[in-house]
Structures are given as structure tokens and as C-alpha cells.
Amino acid sequence: MQLQYESPHPADYLLATGEVDFNAPSIAGLTDGLLASSQDQIGFIRKAYAFVRDEIAHSWDIQSARITCSASETLLHREGICYAKSNLLCAILRRANIPAGFCYQRLTLGDTPDTGYCIHALNAVYIANDERWIRLDARGNKPGIEADFSLGGEKLAFPIRTEYGEVDYPVLYRAPHPKTIAALRGHADCKTMYLHGLPDAL
């Protein structure tokens, strides 16, 4: 997919925000550790992605009621839905001075359109060696979902089914979309939010 930049300024994809709080000691410490164990930038990106995908549980998968939002909060509790997990991955990458942003898909909430729709969050990261952006989905794998880091072609969690009204939004956002943050901040129970409180379009 050809991404469309929300901002023409590369520095905007390196900024800290309330949700991408990469100056938090926990984020700084994690990033330093991942950097120290990586041989190069691509190796670091791969490790950061795998950490968020595999070590941070998806709240729905574990049927947790807790809602996390900021990167540091998500790391503290080691769980979050895709909105929170994308905040964490973005924070780790930006802490390492690697441009990263947010991308979104509109998916069916269940397997078919009659179940309704929800917005799904993923990330894009700039690969300096190739001078291009790639998308990464750190939602978390499980039977039927096998996302991975790939330079040769996207391996995302969900294929888009246009015949079902699903959408791959092309915009590369510099900050989490306000609708996703409003959902996280506006609910007290994750399971209820996941079923009834996620935005269904951008």
C-alpha cells in the first residue's frame, strides 16, 4: 500500500505525546536493553516488534477487564488492545530515534458484516536502509492470526475483505487517532468496550 503522510515533516513522527510517552523510565530502560542486544537498526526494530507482539497480551485474548492506553501503562500491566499496543511499539521505536506512526483498518468485529465493524490499529516504521516505510501489526498472534516482521511483503494480522466493507486506510498518522483514545479513555471495562465501544469508522 502507498501510504499518505498526515504530516510532511519527518520530525513529527519522532515526537513524544501523552500516549507515546517514551521519556518514561520504563520505556527508556526497555529500549536501552533492546538496543544493547541488537546488532543493527533492523535487528532492533525486529526485536521491538516481537516484544510488543509476544510479551504484551491482547486484553481480549486473555479476557481482561483492564483498559490500558499510554505506552508506559501498557508496559506496566503487560496488556492492552491493539490501540494500546501500537502506542507502546511507537514509543519504543521513537525512543530509539526511529520514525514511527499509526495506521488503521476497518474490520468486521466478528467474522461477517452482520456482527458490525471496528477500527483496528497498527504501526508503520521507517526503514532507513531502504528509505521506505513498512507496516507492522503487533496485535498478537493466536490460531488464525500470524503477523510477522517482513521486509519482503506485509505479514499483517488481518487481510482486508473489501466485499465485506473492510477498509485499509492509507493515511500514516503522526499520533494515535482521537477516536481510538476516546474509546480507551471513555470506558471502564475492556470487554464491554471491545464489544460495544470501539469506533466503527474513521
Automatic annotation (TrEMBL):
Domain Transglutaminase-like: 74-140
Signal peptide region: none
Pfam families named among the record's database cross-references: Transglut_core (PF01841)
InterPro entries: Papain-like_cys_pep_sf (IPR038765), Transglutaminase-like (IPR002931)
Organism domain of life: Bacteria
Gene3D superfamilies found in the cross-reference section: 3.10.620.30
PANTHER family: BLR5614 PROTEIN-RELATED (PTHR33490), CONSERVED INTEGRAL MEMBRANE PROTEIN (PTHR33490:SF3)
Protein name as it appears in the record: Transglutaminase family protein
Native species: Paenibacillus lycopersici
